[in-house]
Design a protein that fits this description.
single chain, alpha+beta, seven-stranded mixed β-sheet, disordered C terminus
Length: 515
């Protein structure tokens, strides 16, 4: 700020600059010098509003309303004053909303971007300081502070518990797919690293490499066991060398990459109420998402909308137990169909009607499948098996099965909930309500990937990925709050502005609201 004075950009002395930044008796560099920043003779906030960046001024106002005690209490009030978390996190969130959120980009924005000057009060932290801030507060930012921010946004928008949609996606890890190790290769790497340590036991570099190789081999062994339990080839197990917690899985475009599966619970208003990250499962995160919703609102949602990936007893049973009205299609997310097709277009299990009184299934051709015995599948789930002898002479056998012994139906605990869900979605009112799912659940991911450019994680490990995704969700929620404030301002301006024969253009209306 003192350098600006020599070029005519600021009207303040060096003494004024120092007192604006450090408040006497305070233990923080608050970053309040933004109030004395000038571009020529125009103060910085007025300049930002004039050039169409008034949202940055409102963003700082939202940040000042947050409760920062969760972060400030992690510091010791001795030694050199630290930069206030509001300035550090404000810079990070501003960078995310601007589509630039690598540590080097944030460092550059703090030095050259006028919006960043306003948000972080003129502070210019380098990339290592920003990275250390994220690392220090990773656990708090992911859980407690995220919930605190959501409560703040919910209170500002006066939201109530209502309809929510839960959905997940796949985002590629920072690990390269070219550095994947198969199970046998991971075992061999661990063996060779151990031999190197035995040859030179006093070398710390070799010891660190041996620990890393052993951890990779252990992770590969655990995944091989899981694949074997599911009846899949254990030898095909692979692990990312630079990010062992990432799992090789198909992205939305079908390309196989090491990645994670983040999930969100989105309110009908568009606010992300809850978020979570799992290496490979969407279903495993539902319970945590509902718990976060209860922590924010004090109650479960009234209605929850799911796509076909969640059509299982592990999701339906807990939701029903909590009194949540659930709508969940049995088809995949690409079709949004009410009933899932079987393999290669053949009859699916949902096409067979279960008769509870007679403990039998009725097939689409009208034949009865009778109870034949019990068993356990590869996941350890118990089932009851039903079979019929009428398949041999059935006219529609080609549409049902190619098995020599005929069609077999296995009934698991919780299948009654899936059957009830299919019957519920036969009602037109239920289908109409379910069509709200895509606009609610899909928009956040479109914003995160296209506007905030979260197409690949920058940090490694589940905790690093979790804090990164939480930061993006925080930025998105603040964007929703800013848009709501803009709409309210536009409504008020429309109500008090006299009717004009030629109303202003949309861009002019936005400029008036930002002023």
């Amino acid at each position: 700020a003192t350098a600006q004075g020599s070029f005519g950009f600021a009207r303040q002395s060096s003494a004024a600059a120092s007192t604006a930044e450090v408040v006497p008796g305070d233990d923080w560099f608050q970053g309040d010098g933004h109030l004395e920043f000038f571009i020529g003779a125009e103060r910085l906030d007025a300049y930002l509003q004039r050039v169409g960046s008034g949202w940055v001024v409102r963003l700082r106002g939202l940040l000042e309303g947050l409760n920062w005690e969760l972060l400030t209490r992690a510091y010791q009030l001795t030694g050199r004053k630290a930069k206030h978390p509001r300035a550090m996190l404000g810079l990070i969130l501003y960078g995310i909303l601007s589509g630039r959120w690598s540590l080097r980009d944030l460092e550059e924005m703090a030095r050259l971007d006028a919006g960043a000057w306003w948000v972080c009060g003129g502070h210019q932290p380098d990339h290592s300081t920003i990275g250390e801030f994220i690392h220090r507060h990773a656990a708090i930012l992911t859980t407690a502070f995220f919930e605190s921010l959501v409560r703040y946004v919910v209170a500002r928008l006066r939201l109530q518990a209502g309809t929510v949609a839960i959905d997940g996606t796949v985002i590629e890890s920072a690990a390269s797919r070219f550095h994947m190790l198969k199970l046998q290769a991971a075992r061999e790497a661990a063996r060779l690293a151990e031999q190197a340590v035995q040859a030179d036991p006093d070398e710390p570099v070799l010891q660190a490499q041996a620990r890393t190789a052993t951890e990779l081999a252990q992770t590969a062994e655990e995944r091989a066991e899981e694949r074997g339990a599911r009846g899949r080839e254990a030898a095909a197990t692979s692990v990312a060398r630079t990010d062992p917690e990432a799992v090789l899985q198909p992205r939305k475009d079908g390309a196989w990459r090491p990645g994670y599966k983040p999930s969100v619970l989105v309110h009908a208003s568009g606010v992300i109420i809850a978020q979570s990250v799992h290496p490979s499962s969407e279903v495993a995160q539902v319970e945590r998402l509902l718990a976060q919703h209860a922590a924010v609102f004090g109650t479960p949602p009234t209605t929850a909308l799911f796509d076909g990936n969640y059509h299982c007893a592990e999701v339906l049973v807990p939701c029903v137990a909590q009194g949540i009205d659930v709508l969940c299609a049995s088809g995949g997310t690409q079709r949004e169909s009410w009933n899932k097709r079987g393999a290669r277009g053949r009859f699916a299990k949902g096409d067979f009607v279960y008769d509870a009184a007679g403990d039998r299934y009725r097939c689409p051709a009208g034949h009865d499948l009778l109870r034949q015995g019990n068993g356990t599948n590869r996941h350890g789930h118990a089932y009851t098996r039903y079979r019929t002898r009428a398949c041999r002479g059935c006219a529609v056998r080609g549409q049902c099965t190619t098995a020599t012994q005929g069609r077999v139906i296995d009934r698991f605990d919780g299948d009654e909930y899936k059957e009830l869900m299919r019957s519920v979605l036969e009602h037109p009112a239920a289908r109409k309500k379910y069509r709200e799912r895509a606009p609610i659940a899909e928009r956040p991911y479109a914003e995160l990937t296209e506007h905030q450019r979260l197409r690949r994680f920058h940090r490694r490990g589940r905790l690093g990925v979790a804090v990164e995704f939480a930061l993006h969700c925080m930025a998105y929620d603040l964007k929703v709050a800013l848009r709501a404030a803009l709409r309210l301002h536009a409504i008020l301006c429309h109500c008090i502005t006299p009717r004009l024969s030629h109303p202003p253009s949309p861009m002019r209306q936005i400029a008036l609201c930002a002023a």
